[in-house]
Amino acid sequence: MKILYILLTASVIFVAPTVFSQTLDTLVDVGTHKLHFRVMPGKGLPIVFESGGGNDGSVWGNVMRLLREQTDAPLIAYDRAGFGESEIDTMHVNIINEVKDLQTGLKKLVSGSAYFFVAHSLGGNYAMKFISDRPSYVKGAVFIDVVSPYFMTEVRAANTKKLWASDLEEIKKESIGFYHLALNYECTSRVLRNVANSIEIPLTVIASGKTPFEGEDRKLFLKALKRFAMDRKNRKYILVEDADHYVFYDQPHLVVDEIINLYNTIKEP
Fold first, then answer.
1. Is 33 inside a domain boundary?
2. Domain that holds residue 49
3. Is residue 269 in some structural domain?
4. Which pTM value belongs to this model?
5. Phi and psi angles of residue 205, each rounded to the nearest 5 degrees, phi first
6. How far apart are CA 211 and CA 233, in angstroms?
7. What is the pLDDT of residues 138-176, one digit of tens each?
8. What's the CATH number where 160 sits?
9. How far apart are CA 239 and CA 22, in angstroms?
């Protein structure tokens, strides 16, 4: 559990290399606050990027640049509430409302109502909630070292939240977004467990050999993620043995190739 604490608290101040050319940076009003989006305009089925816990949309810069070399699809990254340049409604922030806000923002940004998702780590929770809410809207997804429902049990989620309890005020000073992520962690994990079994769309699940855990927890994380990947016949599982948790930093071309491979099998609506 200590490793998860280090990963998530460190990620609040993690600075990723970003390469955004010909990108629209915009704040979109989603009702009670505004979300910051980075959009590479294009045509066809939009690819939406969901970042991991503590990260904003800038982590996807290099992947978006590499993808633009292979596809003209609209590429959309965003900062979740309280991260990056996004505002936050502290009275109503939770995974359910955050997913609704993302839906609102996407409707204002692009025409049509179908998407392809790429999600990393805790971002998988939000992507799965989005898919569960709008099963016909998401045509496929690539999940990168996501937190699986078989790993983040009720007990583990409660213990994770306890790790932050004594540091909440310091966390709040560093990042209001992460502060609310910590407060809502049990709820976010409960939603994941509730919706994961309803996911029927084609998935590619990419796992890192060097998860953010060590020892027995690393084995459990990988075993649980592989189990999730094998739950349906329309899922592909890839283990990248020598990659860290941010697989798209260590192996960006592999990740981009897998996104393109699955994306090209999905017909436009």
1. yes
2. 2-263
3. no
4. 0.91
5. -110, 115
6. 25
7. 999 999 999 999 999 999 999 988 888 889 999 999 999
8. 3.40.50.1820
9. 33
